[in-house]
Amino acid sequence: MEMLKQNLDAFYISGTDPHSSEYLPEKWKTREFITGFTGSYGVVVIAQEEAGLWTDSRYFLQAEEQLKGSGIKMFKLRVPNAVTPENWLAKKLPEGSKVGIDPLSVTLNGFRAFENVLNKKNISLIKTNDILGKIWEERPEIPGNQVFELEVKYAGLSRKEKKDTIASELKKLNADYQVVSMLDELAWLFNLRGSDINFNPVFTGYGVVGKNEFLLFADKNKIPPEIQNQLEKEKITLNGYDEFFSWLSELRKKKIYIDPDTVNYSVFETLEKGGNTFVEGTSIVALLKARKNKTELNGFRQAMKKDGVALVEFLFWLKQTTGRENISEYTIGRKLAEFRSKQEGFQGESFSPIVGYKSHGAIVHLTVGPDNALPVEADGILLFDSGGQYLQGTTDITRTVALGKVTSRQKKDFTLVLKGLIALTCAVFPAGTKGCHLDILARRALWENGINYGHGTGHGVGHFLNVHEGPMAIRQEYNPNTIEPGMVLSNEPAMYREGEYGIRTENMIVCVEKQETEYGKFLGFDTLTLCPIDTSLIERQMLTSSEIQWLNDYHQKVRKELMPLIKEELKPFLNELTGPF
Questions:
Q1: Fewer beta carbons below 10 Å: N end or C end of the chain?
Q2: In this structure, which CATH number among 3.40.350.10, 3.30.450.20, 3.40.920.10, 3.40.50.10490 belongs to the domain 148-289?
Q3: β-bridge partners, 192
């Protein structure tokens, strides 16, 4: 009805919010509201007679299941010969058609790409208000949760130091301001944290950094008086969240630095109307945030010890309980959180745990509740992917463990994945290398056996922030951002046999300098994660002597770091898990 009122032939739903968030506050879960699909990635197109959801391989199985009976068709992205939403519309709609889009919840580059394809077919892209607001009864509001300070002893740099660094970069670019719209960038920049989004310690707002100005736009009711006073002392201007666009509209003929991959189209359009010009590139804040400082890296190492202790306690519980008590995938997810919650500085989980037993292990981003979780028995393999938020840092780890009898094919598959993890961990590469250049190392052993996985190999991890952060990544797709010292990433090769099982082994790694020669600077990785790898699943003859050496060295490190921290009764168990292979 709303589409007819606005004379639209189709409507595009980006599946995100004005801040390009992956995980969303309830107010912006438009994709879920329309389709019932609960994954963290996907776009929706509603035409007059058809509707589609586009997502990637992490969610193919989940989307097929959740879309049943809805009349909405699933389309696959990030696969060979994928048909994108804009190309689907260009093929389906006649010339002269109109496609609605909310400019507040689509990025500048996203808008441009869409418009470029549709223009070739003489199809108009119409900027609309958020028409879902008119049909979504009792739509949730933006949360009013309180913001809190992350002390410099955890953050490593003060707000002023961060602002001065950005101002210096802006000067080099001859730019007057950078607009900051990503919520994790905002939280990092202002050394503030919140709880507007589950698992992500962020708050809703915008920021602007100028050569002399420093502005935060957020709901003032969420900022405690003592923080407001401190911001004022630091000459940081605090404005209401709803004042942001009016402030932008008053800027005239300035040069603005924006990241077209993250800033929404409405920001660009508002500034353009004021005669402002632009410098476009990867967010300066994102790059600074990705290169962790010494304090943040020390914090990560402390967080890994806490996480490691919790995981050893969990693995001991799992061994003692499986086959003796009734447990399920859901129970296991809750137990992982319970053991982490005992650690000092724990602030919650970093994402909803993924626990897949047997066939469920092949569902990449599985989420189960008490009603649809599989019972777990002393047989086969279990995949669990989980993480914690600590004041010192964010963790993300996956392990696949044997709970009983396993097959030779499972052992072979597990070993191929492990070979990929080791190969990427041991990589040495020249400065300036991009993630797509490294991705093959994690896949080579799998590819040689005709196996592949559809998701990326490595994503950035925030410091007590989002478990997924950019701008860099290790994946097959091209990403212009290089892997640089201080960047913390996941390393998670995998393989999945639909209807049977899934295998993934994931550590967090940090890029470090290795050496400098007449050929330039060479970089590599250090492993941060401290948790045993299940050696009972390894096919020994498939590993080289250097791979076996790496595994034994890693387990020796795990044992050395965690042994002084765990309870006395767990020490024989840790010795058993980390003994020489």
A1: N
A2: 3.40.350.10
A3: 149
Residue (of 214, 195, 212, 213) closest to 204 by Cα position: 195
Helix (H) or strand (E) holding 208: strand 205-210
486 phi-psi bin (left φ>0, alpha ψ -120 to 50, beta other): left
| Length of the chain, in residues | 581
pTM above 0.85, yes or no: yes
| C-alpha dist (Å) from residue 419 to 86, 385, 545 | 39, 19, 12
Query: 357: Cβ–Cβ under 8 A, 6 or more apart, which residues?
Result: 329, 374, 376, 380, 381, 382, 383, 403
In angstroms and rounded to an integer, the radius of gyration of the C-alpha atoms of the chain is 24
Asked if 2-135 and 148-289 have one fold, the answer is yes
DSSP conformation letters of 474-500 = ESSS---PBP-TTBEEEE--EEEETTT
Helix/strand/coil for 74: strand
Listed residue (397, 306, 317) closest to 355, CA to CA: 397
Residues 86-106 have pLDDT tens digits of: 999 999 999 999 999 999 999
Q: What is the dihedral of CA 389, 390, 396, 398, to 10 degrees?
A: -100
- The 10s digit of each residue's pLDDT in 145-192 is 999 999 999 999 999 999 999 999 999 999 999 999 999 999 999 999
What phi and psi values does residue 348 have, to the nearest 5 degrees? 130, 175
Residue with tokens 């990635």, as numbered in its chain: 41
Residue at token pair 């190309």: 87
Pairwise CA distance, residues 359 & 516, whole Å: 47
* DSSP code per residue over 319-380: HHHBTTB-EEHHHHHHHHHHHHHTSTTEEEESS--EEEEGGGGGSTT----TTTPPEE-SSS
DSSP state of 370: T
- Return the domain boundaries, the chain: 2-135, 148-289, 294-574
Please give the C-alpha separations between residue 448 and each of 429, 496, 500, in angstroms, as whole numbers.
22, 16, 21
Q: Where are the alpha helices (DSSP H) in 50-158?
A: 60-66, 85-92, 108-119, 132-135, 152-155
Residue with tokens 């898990």: 577
Distance of CA 219 to the CA centre of its chain: 25
Query: What architecture (CATH level 2) is domain 294-574?
Result: Alpha-Beta Complex (3.90)
Omega before 375 cis (within 30°)? Answer: no
